[in-house]
């Protein structure tokens, strides 16, 4: 197995293309990574900023440089000894006409050769939620017109500049009132058209569309709403208002995004079509590993991964994007090397977030809210909103299927009972999903389902009976195996999106006592587990041979890794922070606007604003100048807009409350005015100790990421200081030239570094990755051994050993050090007096070398923390 030493994530698009990435290859080699980890590279929907809306799986995006540019990138990487890890998206594609498969489905309906590629319910017309208002209003208002797509060569119904192709069989009826030669010719051409060979058809139509008289006839005909309705009625698709999608969508979507249609990769032919180019790139040696996006969206993740592993071979690195809840681990039958690493972020939070302090912040937040705050109930409410409103159509479909399987004609549960039972089961689900196949659920998944069923809130009688039936269907106890398998797959594909949208994209924006814990893979409902849980998770990962990515920042994280490290420190002085918020709220009380829904911003949103600012405040904690204040405001405004809309309390993406949002943004803007000097000085002064502690935690979490069981993953630019907010802020262009200048020649000693966090962090990464290159077996196969720390500051130090035969290293990082005396990034040794790290017998008495500074030290049965941390904020020793 070819396990990466470390990966470096690059976000293509938004200014980064293949040639730009190729130019970084020498820098990445000097930094010490082994793999460039690329965001999706295949042709995406027009205007895509991320590439997850794939339009053509078998074309490398020309906008990034096309195949020629990709080949130049691969050559540049190979020249520096680097490999490529590719992010692929098997679950969904762009529901747009520039996607040739989707265009074919729209044009030909169920006759299309790609009709089975998408997860579409063909018992009804294909619903296209593209109207900005209800259908009748849209037709009467002229929103829909008859038009042509000159470039692609088809006749269609147009919305703005998008022309949806009509079925060729309807051309004759549609054009029967037209008298131009072009119209007659197009009718003749359409009569010969076939769905599996329509390129010639479109080419012939394209030539006919040069007739200006014909196009003018179309414009005149479009003024007749009755005619437009007639054309619309003859199509295999139906235009609906976009707000109707939650109730009546005929295809599976990605989460709530109707512009992304689910793909049926569980079908062998579809798998082949989706992966043709990807597998070619793997077999040709251009791509060395794959990252699978949204594995939980697939109907059969286990079968998919087993097929993919057979195709790419046993030695290719393969990881999946998967959020694990609590102590959940990946199904053992998945032939993968691990996950993309969200769970590591939660493990780091266990170390650096003080459990008692987080509770105190929650108490202060509750007092501020001036009303009961029950986070468990908030999660339940968010899940209920999702399943009964946002995913109502999916729920109704499942209820119909369950009723049909059960057979409701004999006085059993009604469809409404099944709807309630399924809805409450989803609300109570403790994990993102189960992974049952055609035979039902395995033992672990049965326990998960049993737990959810016990917590589901249903009435006695029909609902209780319906719940019992649904559990039996999911478990595989039903006689209707075929229908039960379809129900099971669709239920399992639904629980994940409901969980994600309810927790990550709703609750995490509603409940903000300590926003550093509101992170993908995190759980703010439970107190941080401290060193015990961190050690337990790392030890278990090593025993499993887990080679998951160790992420501390990704393109999906809610805030940057160094912003999060700084915000952990708030829990060490909760009174200091809450007193500051109270003071700042009093200073700005006159800026609160009264509105029908209450004060704007409300107290809990004020709290969020101050924490968000604390996370992105300048890294030296000084008062920003006018230019920097403008930059902060430019970044905070879209963050607040997203936060308020995701919370869905007083505004949301579909029903925007402009006055409320404006009031909150104005509040934040005025906070950051250069004229608000009293606040700016006070805020900077209050923040200084938190920023100072955050610098240490930044380096500590970096060392842990570089040495823990797994594969270190560096998100673009985060080898410097990453004080970003959620996307789009975390996808801003990176100053790679500055990073290259900062790194210089590559790895060197860490002890002599300046106090600048960005430089220190980058050098630490380069140094430890050089060590990983020298001692690959230790990091790839070595055990993880928790080390006992004792003495007056024992709880302020976390230590561990990695061992593989006679090779070993010892790592140690500080925690909960907000009030520790420090000089820059170095500690006062007296603070650590009599605090020691106990060594295992296998290391006791052996000479150890400081791998960061090169100095040697004698190890007895223990190591003195004061000596270890005399000149550096983190420790790495080796035999």
TrEMBL record:
Its BP terms in the Gene Ontology are: alpha-glucan catabolic process; trehalose biosynthetic process
- CDD domains named in the record: AmyAc_MTSase
* Stored Gene3D superfamilies: Glycosidases, Maltooligosyl trehalose synthase, domain 4
Residues in domain Glycosyl hydrolase family 13 catalytic? 12-747
Report the InterPro entries cross-referenced here. Answer: GH, GH13_cat_dom, Maltooligo_trehalose_synth_4, Trehalose_TreY
Q: What is the lineage of its organism?
A: Bacteria, Pseudomonadati, Pseudomonadota, Alphaproteobacteria, Hyphomicrobiales
- Quote the SMART domains the UniProt record gives: Aamy
Q: What is this protein called?
A: Malto-oligosyltrehalose synthase
Q: Recall the GO molecular function terms of this protein's record.
A: (1,4)-alpha-D-glucan 1-alpha-D-glucosylmutase activity
Cited Pfam families: Alpha-amylase
